[in-house]
Specification:
alpha/beta; nine-stranded mixed sheet; 25% helix; binds coenzyme A
């Protein structure tokens, strides 16, 4: 391992092939200072990141690549979207999207190890792919990155170059949940009993569910990601103090990052562990809570595509839905507002036009109620969705559509 300054990056870039694939810590673990310096050294490259946030380099010569699109890449004409559930992205990094350079953003070293901190995710697999295929690994070492345990800990031997920076991590501003999100949160919370294990998806609604749970006891967390809501549950005494909080990435406030730093209760695991449907199915009373943009009368959800373009991706939603359905006492919730105000349309639609991201949910939940789906007949699913989840103004049209589709 060689320690170099941020103005010596040509030592790295001179060893890369033309148009290299550069895989960088995504979500809220991106090393922006380093990325900006690297960008000056490379005329053309493929920037591969998950849920990239605004502020990444964006110009001709850069091709964006991602299996989960964040606001930093969304709607770009230079975006290559790679559809795939998150649990399988590590495999693709070994077989199809092999990186030429892996850039990890880490804590400062401790006893021969650095920690990936708030973003573990697919990075251990990316490092393994790099080691196997003769690619390079750079650690951007930052005293602001929390030191987290588990698969976050990377031996210094796995790193080719170490670059020191000092940069605050991105934080996620707190957004007050809307009245609709709170109603949906309460609807789901009534079905969550003490001792359940929770997975929380991305978006406003999963956050709102947590705010309805402070009186529960013994809750456990097995999730792909978590945010400040988990800290609130811990402060309210709602979490099982004997079990680890298992997650693969974290984003939220500086207080949250301070809390995960050297916290033995938080066990960061690589995606292959957190998102394995087998592991998820072993959790007691596993409750998965994910959001959709539209759900149709066949209980098929679209969580990834709007305006005829990719908006996000599958993420771990399918991994957790299948896992929750396999867990004893588990439930998979798919949540969405019943009406999309901007387009003035129902979000419960007769039949999806956009690609399906998941199906067979235990309940589809809107602010009007919860429609029981998994285990019900096709006919009953459609009726439940119309009567318990759809906006009242959409119900007549949906019932006519259900007849036309031979569902009722
Ligand atoms: N028709 C048309 N547009 C719609 C729509 C509908 N029915 N529903 C939402 N939209 C638009 C919104 O207007 C917004 O577009 P804009 O930014 O141009 O205004 C966009 O879609 C996103 O909607 P929003 O309600 O803000 O989404 P969100 O932040 O609550 O996230 C998902 C919802 C579904 C996009 C998000 O949960 C996701 O990406 N899920 C898939 C991955 C996943 O579940 N991972 C879980 C494991 S971590």
């Amino acid at each position: 391992m060689q320690v170099i300054d941020i103005d010596q990056l040509s030592k790295i870039t001179s060893k890369l092939p033309n148009n290299p694939r550069v895989l960088v810590s995504g979500n809220f673990g991106t090393p922006f200072l380093f990325l900006s310096a690297l960008d000056k050294q490379l005329a053309t490259y493929r920037l591969n990141m998950l849920n990239a946030q605004p502020g990444i380099p964006d110009r001709d010569g850069i091709t964006f690549e991602s299996a989960f699109i964040g606001a930093g890449m969304r709607y770009s004409d230079r975006l290559e979207y790679f559809p795939g559930r998150l649990s399988l992205v590590p495999r693709m990094l070994r077989t199809h999207t092999k990186p030429d350079l892996v850039v990890i953003h880490t804590s400062t070293p401790r006893a021969g190890l650095v920690s990936l901190g708030n973003e573990v995710n697919v990075l251990p697999a990316a490092i393994e792919s790099a080691r196997k295929h003769n690619a390079l690994v750079v650690a951007v070492v930052n005293p602001h990155m929390p030191y987290t345990f588990g698969d976050a800990e990377i031996p210094l031997e796995d790193i080719d170059y170490l670059v020191e920076v000092s940069e605050n991590l991105r934080t996620k501003p707190h957004v007050e949940p809307t009245e609709v999100a709170l109603k949906i949160g309460q609807e789901i919370a009534t079905r969550i009993s003490d001792g359940s294990t929770l997975q929380l998806g991305i978006g406003a609604i999963p956050d709102a569910v947590l705010s309805a749970l402070p009186n529960r006891k013994g809750l456990r967390i097995w999730t792909e990601m978590f945010s400040d809501g988990v800290l609130d549950l811990r402060n309210a005494g709602a979490l099982d103090v004997r079990s680890h909080i298992t997650a693969s990435f974290v984003f939220g406030s500086q207080e949250l990052y301070d809390w995960i730093h050297l916290n033995p209760r938080v066990r960061m695991r690589r995606t292959e562990v957190t998102n394995s449907s087998g592991n998820i199915g072993k959790q007691p009373r596993m409750i998965s809570i994910n959001a959709a943009l539209q759900v149709d009368l066949f209980d098929q959800a679209n969580s990834s595509r709007v305006h005829d373009r990719i908006y996000s991706g599958f993420g771990g939603s399918t991994d957790f839905i299948v896992g929750a359905l396999n867990s004893r006492g588990g439930l998979a919730f798919m949540a969405l507002p019943s009406w999309h105000a901007k387009t003035n349309t129902s979000t419960i639609v007769p039949k999806l036009i956009d690609p399906v991201t998941s199906f067979q949910h235990s309940y589809v939940v809107t602010e009007h109620g919860a429609a029981h789906c998994a285990g019900a007949s096709q006919r009953q699913q459609a009726l439940n969705l119309i009567e318990h989840a759809a906006h009242p103004d959409a119900r007549d049209d949906l019932m006519k559509a259900a007849h036309d589709l031979n569902l009722v």
